[in-house]
Structure formats: C-alpha cells, structure tokens
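Collaborator request log, item 7. Partner lab (contact: R.S.) asked for a structural prediction of Flagellar secretion chaperone FliS to inform their binding assays.
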Amino acid sequence: MFAATFAPTRTLHSLANAYQQIGLETAVANASPHKLIELLFDGFADAVARARGAMIARQIEAKGRAISHAARIVEEGLKASLNLKDGGKIAADLDALYAYIGMRLTYANLHNDAEALDECARLMAPVRSAWAEIGPQVTATAQ
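Returned to partner:
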C-alpha cells in the first residue's frame, strides 16, 4: 500500500504547490474585502521575488510566468479594485502608480532588468504597509 521510496522531486514540487493552493483558497474564502487586497499585495511581493530569483538563475520561462503573475495582480486585482469615481485623489494616484508599475514589470521582463523589479517592489512596499496598517481600523469599523 505504501512504498518505502520517496516520490521524485517533480512530484514533491507538485504536492507542495497543491498544498499552497489549498491554503490560498482557504484564506480567500474566509477573507474580508480588506484582507483580499492584502493577499494581493502579498502575492505581488511573492511573484516579484520569484521573478528576481528566476532572472538570476537565468530561468527565462519561470521569470516570464512570475512577472506575468505580478502584472496580472496589479492590473486585474489592485488596479481593478480602485473606485476612481468616489476615491478622489488617492484612487487616481494609485491608478497612476499601478500603471507605472505595470509598465516597469514589462520592461523588466523584456530587458531582464533586476533593478526594474526592485523598483516595483520598492514602490509597492509603502502602499502595502499602509494598507496593512489600516486593517485593524477597517475591521473595527466593520463590526
């Protein structure tokens, strides 16, 4: 029934990915709208870190997948969640920042530019930090 041998590395990697996906799905299913955005920020940071590692290791396909994932998080998640009608200057500024980050991610991908990836991470860090900081206030207000 159970073998005394270990699964190939590729299988172990697949199992780890499945475990991670289940954890993410559980977090998303139980998350507030505020927490969902926080998860997007976390996913962005993770994708940029993976892209940087793949770039250094000269793993072009992995780099492209990771940068594409980061760009989709920015465009389809963070940018799409902005309320430009009622959000005022903050929403407009974030919209412009996210557009710039998307452009820099594309540049980083096309030119294998780790500094452009680092710039994206640096630009997103204070937004991510501010979002996390207001979390307790949002949670208290919602209750």
